[in-house]
Amino acid sequence: MTPSDSGFLAIGAQRLEYRFIGPRPDRAPTLVLLHEGLGSAGMWNDFPEKLSAATGAGVFVYSRAGYGKSSPVKLPRPLSYMQDEARETLPSLLEAIGFRRGLLVGHSDGASIAAIYAGSHQDHRVGGLVLIAPHFFTEDSGIASVVEAKKAYETGDLRARLSRWHTDVDNAFLGWNGAWLDPEFRKWDITDFLA
Fold first, then answer.
1. Which residues does residue 58 pair with via DSSP β-bridges, in sequence order?
2. Phi and psi, residue 9, nearest 5°
3. Distance CA 164, CA 81 (A)
4. pLDDT above 70 coverage of the chain, percent
5. From CA 6, how far away is CA 18, in angstroms rounded?
6. Which of 51, 132, 165, 176 sees the fewest Cβ atoms within 10 Å?
7. What is the pLDDT of residue 114?
8. What is the CATH number of domain 6-194?
């Protein structure tokens, strides 16, 4: 399949929003951008266009289920949501867009997903990873930031600011925040994938 510039991909039961900038996978390497825990395809703003112009590569961005205009997820999210994305959704998505060669570029949760994918799949099409602020295990400072985000969402303007980017802002925020604040999430650790 040669993806159009934007639209939705059906991956399993999910309907995922996406944008494709620059040359398609049959003409150039593809940089697949994986957004952070409260991100979406739209929140990358004009970064994909600038990245494509600077590198000559195609840039593919998408909103994971529960984010942007993608289908919502059932709450509460499983604590393995990043592993699930890397093992189940991302392989199917790469096939659906005709990925041939390139890099996975992840930010925060997206960086963790990229690391899990690389550590659990022998995919010679992926030439490397760009990991921006990844987390490999749960840290107290990270949990403290998530607690502050919850306060800002409930009493500040965070909900209003996020509603610009997410069709179902509660699904996006509560899915992410609820997983991180679950006491069992303190055991979350993906360092085995780094070997």
1. 30
2. -115, 140
3. 24
4. 99
5. 6
6. 132
7. 98
8. 3.40.50.1820
**CB distance 11 to 96 below 8 Å:** yes
Token couple for 99: 């990925």
pLDDT at 195 over 90: no
- Helix axis angle for 140-155 and 169-181, nearest 10°, is 150
What is the C-alpha to C-alpha distance for residues 111 and 128, in angstroms, rounded to an integer?
12
Strand-by-strand arrangement of the 6-11 sheet: 6-11, 14-21, 58-62, 30-34, 102-107, 126-132
Write the Ramachandran bin of 63: left for phi over 0, alpha for psi from -120 to 50, otherwise beta.
Answer: beta
126-132 and 58-62 beta bridge pairing: unpaired
Type of residue found at 53? A
* 78, two tokens: 């499983």
CA-derived radius of gyration, the chain? 16
Please give the pLDDT value at position 2. 67
Separation in Å, CA 86 to CA 28, 161, 177: 23, 28, 19
